[in-house]
Input
Amino acid sequence: MKHEDYDDAEFEDEDDFEDDGYDDRTHYAYDDEAEEEDEVEYYAVRPNKTRIKKEIAAIFAMAEEISGLAPAHIAEFELPENIEKALCDAGKMGRNAAKKRLLKYITGQMRELDVDAIREKLARLKNRSAHGVREHHQAERWRDQLLSEAGNAALTQLVSEFPEADTQHLRQLQRNALKEAKEAKPPKSARLLYKYLKQLISDTGHSAVADEAEPEHDPD
Output
């Protein structure tokens, strides 16, 4: 797949990709005695190529990870339009040479940005995603326990773990869900029960200690 919007030639060669723009860079150092005489001495400092290679590899890996996110999540990084578009395009491609060239283009563009800020946003997004997954699984476990033969005991345990819970509302949802299951009706109340449980867990922050709070499972 050809991406005409991007200049592949910039990263045509791996060495060009790794060292692009660094060898020609000049660093300045000041000599104390010369400064007193209002004179500045210039020293060329060659960057550590191994360090540069590691930094670029890290940015490349981060770009690849971001490209795998949903477009809505990529937009949360508030990146320049060309980079955001390239990341979305890369996410649609398979693992091939064209995708690698595109990711190298993205990496080159990202090197001009605040990489640490991008990395922090990615970490927050991943943490938020993991948090949501924990909430989902914990809500499912509580719902299944509430609708099991040990439902009454599970409700007592739930209210103990979540004092903020509306016991009357939970009991009503529990009864309706069990009745619907018995009558082979669509599980409307079971869905409402899950929704309430997930919101309860999210509002109270209990998902951070899901392993401690989750109900015990009876062995099969």
The radius of gyration is 28 Å. Confidence is low (pLDDT under 50) at residues 1-14, 18-38, 208-220.
